[in-house]
UniProtKB/TrEMBL annotation:
Name recorded for this polypeptide: Adenine phosphoribosyltransferase
Superkingdom per UniProt: Bacteria
GO MF terms held by the record: adenine binding; adenine phosphoribosyltransferase activity; AMP binding
EC class of the enzyme, as a word: transferase
Protein family: Belongs to the purine/pyrimidine phosphoribosyltransferase family.
Originating organism: Cryobacterium zongtaii
A Pfam family this chain is assigned to: Pribosyltran
Length: 175
């Protein structure tokens, strides 16, 4: 019997109240990723949703890298690493965005794909949407097309989808 990815996530997701500060409920996907069957189910779910629609997958640092590598392998496509600021050599595009308590910067190396390449953005959690929206802006500034967003867990009460724009969002579990 094949267990759906959502059931794996519900079963293995760990929650830590008051981390990293009081009033925050931290949702930890590491136990999900540490289970080989669950990880495969997640990769299969995200890959299937967008099958044939993308030429490359962009993973957002850090856990998005895990997902992008798995999807890239499964779909036999290119993998792009969207890194935190200051981590990439050469010519990069930079996008600043707001966090709940400050700001951050993401970067993407230029010229990795032909112009017009279709890119799927993946990350572990969709919260306020700032990181995914910044990534979508980087993808578009690089001359690529964002065809969709895939995440394992969406924190629906934070309404991150509203910041992403028109790209379809596929979520395995929404809480």
């Amino acid at each position: 019997m094949i267990i759906p990815a959502a059931q794996h996530v519900h079963t293995l997701l760990a929650s830590y109240p008051d981390f990293p500060q009081p009033g925050i409920l931290f949702r930890d996907l590491n136990p999900v990723f540490a289970d080989a069957v669950a990880f495969r189910a997640i990769i299969d779910d995200l890959s299937e949703r967008y099958r044939g629609q993308f030429d490359a997958v962009a993973g957002i640092e850090a856990r998005g890298f895990l997902l992008a590598a798995g999807i890239g392998y499964a779909a036999q496509c290119a993998v792009l690493a969207v890194r935190k600021g200051g981590k990439l050599p050469g010519t990069v595009l930079t996008e600043e965005y707001d966090l709940e308590y400050g700001s951050a910067r993401l970067e993407l190396e230029v010229g990795q794909l032909p112009a017009g390449s279709r890119v799927l953005i993946v990350d572990d959690v969709l919260a306020t949407g700032g990181t995914v929206a910044a990534t979508a802006r980087l993808i578009e500034r690089a001359g690529y097309l964002t065809i969709g967003v895939g995440v394992v867990l969406e924190l629906a009460e934070l309404d991150g989808r509203s910041r992403i724009g028109d790209a379809p969002v596929h979520t395995i579990v929404s809480v």
